[in-house]
Design a protein that fits this description.
The complex is a heterodimer. Chain A is an alpha/beta fold. Helices cover about 45% and strands about 15% of the residues of chain A. Classes of the chains: A alpha/beta, B mainly alpha. At the A-B interface, helix 4 and helix 7 of A face helix 1 of B.
Amino acid sequence: MELPQVTILIAAYNEREILLEKVRNCYALNYPADLLDILVVTDGSTDDSADILQDLPLVRTMHLPKREGKLAAVNRAMKKVQSPIVVLTDANCLLNKEALANIVRHYEDPKVGAVSGEKRVLATNDSSGQGEGLYWKYESFLKKMDSDLNSVVGAAGELFSFRRELYEYLPAGIIIEDFVLAMNIAAKGYQVVYEPEAVAEEAPSSNLAEEWKRKVRICAGGFQAIGIFSYLLNPKKFNLLSFQFLSHRLLRWAVVPFLFPVVLVLSAWQAMHGLVEYQFFLAIQCVGYGVAAMGLFYMGKDRLPKLVSIPFQFAMMNAAAYAGLVRFLKGSQSAVWEKAKRKIQVASLR
Amino acid sequence: MTISINTIIILAIYVIFYAYVGYGLLVWAIVTYKKFKKYLWSFLK
């Protein structure tokens, strides 16, 4: 296969601290330099991040003083892209050397419209990182299965590639643009492939409050995305994609979080009426919620015990759906990107 | 009354289990079956 020209598109907001490291990371990728184009958009940045990239080989920069969010920045940059393949990657994550080569090889198949890489949260002793990492391991397994079956439903915004001709200029106000971009391509009948050997490593959120903020944003975006892609729930037209979207996204985002209290209340009702099996079931649920609640006492501590971490992260993920729904209904979730603060930069963890 | 509450609880647990575990297992089973069939087919040919 003849290697195509690739544009690495980085939308960065006040990422001066890591931008040079990111560009060095792009230089280190195992891909011919003459086929590489690095386009960095620093819209809204106030830390002179665009200036430090001036005169660097292969790097083009775009900057507007006004901050309009990642999607607006990507939309603007896409007008300047000539390469047939675009790789979107966040400034605060670093790629493995073979990432690009592993992504590009999938485009040999004309049915492949996009390739999603693997997001890896680097391990620290930090409490917010533990569950995040564990959750992603399971999600990665599901993505691999989804990809092998038909198509991934969604993509990791940290490392996501697509054919330029399939890019759709999305309107402002889209909260989780990576998901919407990937689903648009899948809905057109192209396969969105998951490539586990293309890895974007990032540091975990600095604390649980940051992690909560990130989860609420994703949930609010999830409700918005369900509205946008409700037309996919037509199995006659979308076949497997319809089944995957329903099972992997709709149920997880919009149904399951609201079933937990139903189960709790109804089993309490049954237990009160003397049904022994429900008294036992209620006790199990109370222990689960109790252990999850213990996580709140560790919020200021450096480390969350593993026994507490898993139920706590699981409860937090589902609770975020309520806050996300409220934000979505009120229209108060900003589409301007708010990256979770990271305790340390990813480069120092490598 | 008892039956209908039981049904709701069981259905809710089923949906929760399916969304988090069952779907993954189902897709894994289909993918494994397809791979096995492909392998078997190439072997028999």
